[in-house]
User: Which sequence fits this backbone?
């Protein structure tokens, strides 16, 4: 009987040790448009990790509307060029400027008549002048599905 009680106490002690181990924090899952990630988020990640080493961050590149529950996303960084829908907490992060560019040879030759040039644009943004085209300046927004997110600044 003494051995059985001793084993029971050892198992109880091991179970208590396991419970006392600090739980590993759940990662902060962030969905971010690639251009915002490259130009705004990634340059700030080193400082974020210094201030919040206890917060594991899972980042994935994505754009457009976010299905927070379905995709298990905690926060999303997006441009404000689509309808967000209701029930979200949204805050402005920064401005994003969109401007035309041209080859230096065209500029030197004075060949800036755009109607005579081949225009390039992305599939995700319509060229200026087309319905739904973004304005010259858009705003990067952070959104969460919660009423007010826990304050962790980036």
Assistant:
């Amino acid at each position: 009987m003494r051995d059985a009680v001793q084993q029971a106490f050892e198992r109880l002690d091991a179970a208590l040790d396991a419970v006392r181990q600090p739980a590993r924090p759940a990662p902060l899952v962030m969905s971010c448009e690639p251009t915002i990630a490259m130009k705004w988020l990634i340059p700030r990640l080193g400082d974020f990790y210094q201030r919040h080493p206890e917060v594991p961050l899972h980042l994935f590149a994505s754009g457009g509307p976010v299905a927070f529950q379905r995709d298990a996303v905690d926060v999303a960084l997006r441009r404000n060029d689509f309808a967000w829908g209701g029930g979200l907490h949204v805050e402005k992060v920064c401005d994003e400027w969109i401007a035309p560019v041209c080859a230096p040879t065209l500029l030197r030759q004075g060949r800036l008549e755009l109607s005579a040039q081949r225009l390039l644009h992305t599939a995700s943004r319509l060229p200026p002048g087309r319905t739904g085209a973004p304005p010259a300046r858009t705003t990067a927004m952070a959104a969460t599905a919660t009423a007010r997110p826990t304050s962790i600044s980036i």
